[in-house]
Amino acid sequence: MPADNRLLVLLAIFAVATLVGLLWKATTGRAKRIKDGQTVDLQELGAVKNGQAVSKFGSKVTFLQFSGEFCSQCPPTARVLAELEAKTPGALHIEVDITNRLDLARKFNILQTPTTLVLDKRGVILSRIAGSPKTTTLESELGTFAI
Amino acid sequence: MSNKQIDPRGPRFGAAITTVLLAINVYLALDTKTLPNAFWLLTVITALFAIGAFFGNSRHPYGWIFKTFVRPRLAAPKELEDAAAPQFAQLIGLLVAGTGVALYLVVSPGALVFAAGAAFFAAFLNAVFNYCLGCQIYFGLKRLRVIR
Question: Would the pTM of this model clear 0.80, i.e. be above it?
Answer without folding.
Answer: yes
